[in-house]
Amino acid sequence: YCCQYVYFSTNYYTYCHSLWNIYLLWTKTVKMEICIPFLLAFIAFYEVEAAIDCDTLGTIIYEDIGCRPVTKEGQNCPVKYDCDTVPRNNTCMFRGRTLSVGQQVDNDLTYDSCNVGCHCRNTGKFECAVLDCPEWLGIHPGPGCYKTYDVNKCCSVGKNCHSAKQTIGECVVDNEKYLEGQKFYPDNTCLKCVCPKEFNGKLEAPHCKRTRCSSQIRHSQDIANNCAPYYDTTKDGVICCPDAWVCPTPTDKIITVNPNADKSSDLTCKFGDKTLKLGEGLESKVNYYDGSTKKARCECILPPLLTCRQII
Protein backbone atom coordinates (compact mmCIF):
# COMPACT_ATOMS: atom_id res chain seq x y z
CA TYR A 1 0.00 0.00 0.00
CA CYS A 2 2.65 2.51 1.05
CA CYS A 3 4.90 1.07 -1.62
CA GLN A 4 2.39 2.04 -4.29
CA TYR A 5 2.18 5.52 -2.81
CA VAL A 6 5.96 5.97 -2.86
CA TYR A 7 6.10 4.88 -6.48
CA PHE A 8 3.54 7.40 -7.68
CA SER A 9 4.84 10.18 -5.43
CA THR A 10 8.56 9.90 -6.12
CA ASN A 11 9.09 7.30 -8.86
CA TYR A 12 11.90 5.75 -6.86
CA TYR A 13 10.74 2.32 -7.93
CA THR A 14 13.73 0.33 -6.74
CA TYR A 15 12.91 1.02 -3.10
CA CYS A 16 9.51 -0.64 -3.28
CA HIS A 17 10.81 -4.12 -2.53
CA SER A 18 11.88 -3.33 1.02
CA LEU A 19 8.73 -1.29 1.63
CA TRP A 20 6.63 -4.22 0.44
CA ASN A 21 8.14 -6.37 3.16
CA ILE A 22 6.95 -3.79 5.68
CA TYR A 23 3.48 -3.96 4.16
CA LEU A 24 3.32 -7.71 4.75
CA LEU A 25 3.49 -7.05 8.48
CA TRP A 26 0.36 -4.96 8.33
CA THR A 27 -3.27 -6.00 8.05
CA LYS A 28 -5.63 -5.12 5.25
CA THR A 29 -7.22 -2.52 7.51
CA VAL A 30 -4.14 -0.24 7.48
CA LYS A 31 -5.34 3.37 7.41
CA MET A 32 -4.00 6.37 5.52
CA GLU A 33 -3.25 8.20 8.77
CA ILE A 34 -0.66 5.48 9.50
CA CYS A 35 0.79 5.44 6.00
CA ILE A 36 1.11 9.16 5.30
CA PRO A 37 3.51 10.09 8.15
CA PHE A 38 5.74 7.17 7.16
CA LEU A 39 5.76 8.30 3.54
CA LEU A 40 6.50 11.92 4.34
CA ALA A 41 9.48 10.92 6.46
CA PHE A 42 10.74 8.54 3.79
CA ILE A 43 10.40 11.00 0.92
CA ALA A 44 12.02 13.88 2.84
CA PHE A 45 14.99 11.67 3.70
CA TYR A 46 15.28 10.18 0.22
CA GLU A 47 15.10 13.45 -1.69
CA VAL A 48 18.09 14.83 0.23
CA GLU A 49 20.20 11.72 0.71
CA ALA A 50 19.66 9.62 -2.41
CA ALA A 51 21.44 10.00 -5.75
CA ILE A 52 23.79 12.76 -4.58
CA ASP A 53 26.77 10.65 -5.66
CA CYS A 54 25.14 10.21 -9.07
CA ASP A 55 24.63 13.89 -9.84
CA THR A 56 27.68 14.00 -12.11
CA LEU A 57 25.62 11.84 -14.49
CA GLY A 58 22.70 14.26 -14.65
CA THR A 59 20.14 12.17 -12.76
CA ILE A 60 18.13 15.11 -11.47
CA ILE A 61 16.49 15.87 -14.82
CA TYR A 62 14.99 12.38 -14.79
CA GLU A 63 13.74 12.80 -11.24
CA ASP A 64 12.21 16.09 -12.33
CA ILE A 65 10.22 14.66 -15.26
CA GLY A 66 9.01 11.62 -13.34
CA CYS A 67 11.07 8.84 -14.92
CA ARG A 68 11.65 5.45 -13.29
CA PRO A 69 15.30 4.54 -12.55
CA VAL A 70 16.61 1.20 -13.80
CA THR A 71 19.50 -0.20 -11.80
CA LYS A 72 22.06 -2.92 -12.41
CA GLU A 73 23.45 -5.22 -9.76
CA GLY A 74 26.75 -3.98 -8.40
CA GLN A 75 26.23 -0.36 -9.50
CA ASN A 76 25.09 2.39 -7.14
CA CYS A 77 23.70 4.70 -9.82
CA PRO A 78 20.94 3.98 -12.35
CA VAL A 79 22.11 2.78 -15.76
CA LYS A 80 19.07 4.23 -17.51
CA TYR A 81 15.58 5.61 -16.89
CA ASP A 82 12.19 4.62 -18.24
CA CYS A 83 10.28 7.76 -19.17
CA ASP A 84 6.78 8.56 -20.36
CA THR A 85 7.01 12.17 -21.51
CA VAL A 86 4.98 12.39 -24.73
CA PRO A 87 1.55 14.02 -24.24
CA ARG A 88 -1.37 12.21 -25.89
CA ASN A 89 -4.69 13.54 -27.17
CA ASN A 90 -4.18 17.20 -26.22
CA THR A 91 -2.99 16.44 -22.71
CA CYS A 92 0.09 17.59 -20.79
CA MET A 93 2.69 15.57 -18.91
CA PHE A 94 4.14 16.60 -15.57
CA ARG A 95 6.35 14.32 -13.49
CA GLY A 96 4.76 11.15 -14.77
CA ARG A 97 1.18 12.42 -14.51
CA THR A 98 -1.17 13.10 -17.40
CA LEU A 99 -3.14 16.35 -17.08
CA SER A 100 -6.18 17.24 -19.16
CA VAL A 101 -6.71 20.62 -20.82
CA GLY A 102 -7.41 23.26 -18.18
CA GLN A 103 -6.14 21.14 -15.31
CA GLN A 104 -3.73 22.97 -13.00
CA VAL A 105 -0.54 21.71 -11.44
CA ASP A 106 -0.47 22.05 -7.66
CA ASN A 107 1.35 25.30 -6.86
CA ASP A 108 3.37 23.52 -4.18
CA LEU A 109 5.08 21.54 -6.96
CA THR A 110 6.16 24.59 -8.97
CA TYR A 111 6.40 27.44 -6.46
CA ASP A 112 10.07 26.90 -5.64
CA SER A 113 10.90 27.28 -9.36
CA CYS A 114 8.99 30.60 -9.39
CA ASN A 115 6.02 29.37 -11.46
CA VAL A 116 2.42 29.46 -10.18
CA GLY A 117 -1.02 28.82 -11.65
CA CYS A 118 0.38 26.45 -14.27
CA HIS A 119 -2.44 24.93 -16.31
CA CYS A 120 -2.48 22.63 -19.31
CA ARG A 121 -3.30 24.12 -22.70
CA ASN A 122 -4.58 22.25 -25.76
CA THR A 123 -1.12 22.53 -27.32
CA GLY A 124 0.31 20.09 -24.78
CA LYS A 125 2.19 22.94 -23.11
CA PHE A 126 1.72 24.73 -19.79
CA GLU A 127 0.84 28.36 -19.24
CA CYS A 128 1.99 29.86 -15.94
CA ALA A 129 2.40 33.10 -14.08
CA VAL A 130 6.05 33.83 -13.34
CA LEU A 131 6.77 35.38 -9.97
CA ASP A 132 8.61 38.71 -9.76
CA CYS A 133 10.30 38.66 -6.38
CA PRO A 134 10.80 42.04 -4.65
CA GLU A 135 14.52 41.32 -4.26
CA TRP A 136 14.83 40.95 -8.03
CA LEU A 137 13.37 44.43 -8.46
CA GLY A 138 16.03 45.99 -6.24
CA ILE A 139 13.84 46.33 -3.16
CA HIS A 140 16.08 46.04 -0.09
CA PRO A 141 14.96 45.03 3.42
CA GLY A 142 16.47 48.12 5.05
CA PRO A 143 19.55 48.97 7.15
CA GLY A 144 20.69 46.17 9.43
CA CYS A 145 18.19 43.72 7.92
CA TYR A 146 18.35 40.81 5.52
CA LYS A 147 15.85 38.76 3.53
CA THR A 148 14.74 35.39 4.89
CA TYR A 149 13.62 32.39 2.86
CA ASP A 150 11.62 29.16 2.98
CA VAL A 151 13.21 26.15 1.26
CA ASN A 152 9.90 25.48 -0.55
CA LYS A 153 9.35 29.03 -1.81
CA CYS A 154 10.78 31.11 -4.64
CA CYS A 155 10.76 34.62 -3.17
CA SER A 156 11.77 35.78 0.28
CA VAL A 157 9.15 35.21 2.96
CA GLY A 158 10.22 37.96 5.35
CA LYS A 159 13.16 39.80 6.80
CA ASN A 160 15.26 39.67 9.94
CA CYS A 161 16.35 42.87 11.62
CA HIS A 162 18.22 41.37 14.54
CA SER A 163 19.23 43.29 17.62
CA ALA A 164 21.96 42.72 20.17
CA LYS A 165 19.46 40.94 22.42
CA GLN A 166 18.39 38.53 19.70
CA THR A 167 20.17 35.21 19.14
CA ILE A 168 20.51 34.44 15.44
CA GLY A 169 21.35 30.98 14.15
CA GLU A 170 24.41 30.58 11.92
CA CYS A 171 25.50 28.00 9.37
CA VAL A 172 29.06 27.59 8.11
CA VAL A 173 29.09 25.64 4.84
CA ASP A 174 31.92 25.47 2.30
CA ASN A 175 33.82 28.06 4.38
CA GLU A 176 30.97 30.55 4.00
CA LYS A 177 28.79 31.84 6.85
CA TYR A 178 25.03 32.16 6.49
CA LEU A 179 22.57 33.63 8.97
CA GLU A 180 19.31 32.03 10.04
CA GLY A 181 16.83 32.25 7.17
CA GLN A 182 19.40 32.88 4.44
CA LYS A 183 19.49 30.44 1.53
CA PHE A 184 22.56 28.70 0.15
CA TYR A 185 23.51 26.07 -2.40
CA PRO A 186 26.20 23.67 -1.09
CA ASP A 187 29.10 22.77 -3.38
CA ASN A 188 29.11 19.37 -5.08
CA THR A 189 25.37 18.89 -4.59
CA CYS A 190 22.05 19.68 -6.22
CA LEU A 191 20.63 20.88 -2.93
CA LYS A 192 18.86 24.08 -1.98
CA CYS A 193 19.13 24.93 1.72
CA VAL A 194 17.94 27.56 4.16
CA CYS A 195 19.97 28.10 7.32
CA PRO A 196 17.95 26.93 10.35
CA LYS A 197 18.12 28.37 13.86
CA GLU A 198 20.01 25.32 15.12
CA PHE A 199 22.29 23.85 12.45
CA ASN A 200 23.73 20.39 13.10
CA GLY A 201 26.18 20.52 10.22
CA LYS A 202 24.17 18.05 8.14
CA LEU A 203 22.66 18.90 4.77
CA GLU A 204 19.33 17.19 5.31
CA ALA A 205 15.58 17.77 5.49
CA PRO A 206 13.78 19.87 6.53
CA HIS A 207 16.26 22.71 5.90
CA CYS A 208 17.66 21.20 2.66
CA LYS A 209 15.92 19.65 -0.33
CA ARG A 210 16.75 18.40 -3.80
CA THR A 211 16.53 21.06 -6.48
CA ARG A 212 13.40 21.00 -8.61
CA CYS A 213 13.85 22.08 -12.20
CA SER A 214 10.20 22.00 -13.38
CA SER A 215 11.59 21.45 -16.89
CA GLN A 216 8.26 20.28 -18.28
CA ILE A 217 6.70 23.63 -17.42
CA ARG A 218 8.85 25.50 -19.96
CA HIS A 219 10.32 22.75 -22.15
CA SER A 220 7.64 20.07 -22.50
CA GLN A 221 7.91 20.12 -26.29
CA ASP A 222 11.70 19.81 -26.23
CA ILE A 223 11.46 16.82 -23.89
CA ALA A 224 8.72 15.15 -25.96
CA ASN A 225 10.82 15.64 -29.13
CA ASN A 226 13.84 13.90 -27.57
CA CYS A 227 15.98 17.03 -27.39
CA ALA A 228 18.95 16.89 -25.01
CA PRO A 229 19.52 18.81 -21.76
CA TYR A 230 22.53 21.13 -21.89
CA TYR A 231 24.64 22.08 -18.87
CA ASP A 232 27.23 24.82 -18.53
CA THR A 233 30.48 23.27 -17.37
CA THR A 234 30.82 23.40 -13.59
CA LYS A 235 34.00 23.27 -11.55
CA ASP A 236 32.90 20.32 -9.43
CA GLY A 237 31.39 18.19 -12.18
CA VAL A 238 27.93 18.05 -10.59
CA ILE A 239 25.14 18.84 -13.06
CA CYS A 240 21.72 19.82 -11.78
CA CYS A 241 19.03 21.63 -13.77
CA PRO A 242 19.60 22.15 -17.51
CA ASP A 243 20.74 25.59 -18.63
CA ALA A 244 19.26 25.07 -22.11
CA TRP A 245 18.15 22.35 -24.52
CA VAL A 246 19.82 21.09 -27.70
CA CYS A 247 17.40 19.94 -30.40
CA PRO A 248 18.08 17.97 -33.60
CA THR A 249 19.03 19.70 -36.84
CA PRO A 250 19.35 18.28 -40.38
CA THR A 251 23.15 18.72 -40.26
CA ASP A 252 23.75 16.66 -37.09
CA LYS A 253 26.57 14.15 -37.50
CA ILE A 254 26.85 11.23 -35.10
CA ILE A 255 30.39 10.71 -33.79
CA THR A 256 32.16 8.60 -31.17
CA VAL A 257 32.63 10.87 -28.17
CA ASN A 258 33.88 8.27 -25.69
CA PRO A 259 35.73 5.32 -27.29
CA ASN A 260 35.98 3.65 -23.88
CA ALA A 261 32.22 3.28 -23.46
CA ASP A 262 30.80 -0.23 -23.08
CA LYS A 263 30.27 -1.29 -26.70
CA SER A 264 28.62 -4.55 -25.65
CA SER A 265 25.81 -2.75 -23.85
CA ASP A 266 22.33 -2.71 -25.36
CA LEU A 267 21.60 0.67 -23.74
CA THR A 268 20.72 3.41 -26.22
CA CYS A 269 19.72 7.08 -26.23
CA LYS A 270 17.23 8.90 -28.42
CA PHE A 271 17.93 12.24 -30.07
CA GLY A 272 15.01 13.23 -32.25
CA ASP A 273 14.40 10.15 -34.39
CA LYS A 274 18.02 8.99 -34.10
CA THR A 275 19.19 6.15 -31.85
CA LEU A 276 22.69 6.35 -30.35
CA LYS A 277 24.75 3.79 -28.45
CA LEU A 278 26.64 4.51 -25.25
CA GLY A 279 29.64 6.73 -26.02
CA GLU A 280 28.14 8.09 -29.23
CA GLY A 281 27.10 11.69 -29.58
CA LEU A 282 27.49 14.89 -31.56
CA GLU A 283 28.67 18.47 -31.38
CA SER A 284 26.21 21.32 -31.64
CA LYS A 285 25.55 24.93 -30.66
CA VAL A 286 23.34 26.40 -27.97
CA ASN A 287 21.60 29.70 -28.59
CA TYR A 288 20.85 31.72 -25.46
CA TYR A 289 18.08 34.27 -25.02
CA ASP A 290 20.60 37.12 -24.96
CA GLY A 291 21.81 36.20 -28.45
CA SER A 292 25.04 34.54 -27.32
CA THR A 293 26.08 31.12 -28.61
CA LYS A 294 28.01 28.34 -26.90
CA LYS A 295 29.47 25.13 -28.27
CA ALA A 296 28.18 21.88 -26.84
CA ARG A 297 29.28 18.26 -26.92
CA CYS A 298 26.50 15.74 -26.38
CA GLU A 299 27.00 12.11 -25.41
CA CYS A 300 24.89 9.07 -24.63
CA ILE A 301 25.83 8.52 -20.97
CA LEU A 302 22.58 7.91 -19.11
CA PRO A 303 19.70 6.92 -21.44
CA PRO A 304 17.24 7.78 -22.76
CA LEU A 305 18.41 11.40 -23.24
CA LEU A 306 21.78 12.61 -24.43
CA THR A 307 23.77 14.70 -21.95
CA CYS A 308 25.25 17.91 -23.38
CA ARG A 309 28.09 19.86 -21.80
CA GLN A 310 29.75 23.11 -22.76
CA ILE A 311 32.94 22.88 -24.81
CA ILE A 312 35.54 25.32 -23.50
Automatic annotation (TrEMBL):
Lineage: Eukaryota, Metazoa, Ecdysozoa, Arthropoda, Hexapoda
Protein name (record): VWFC domain-containing protein
Domain of life: Eukaryota
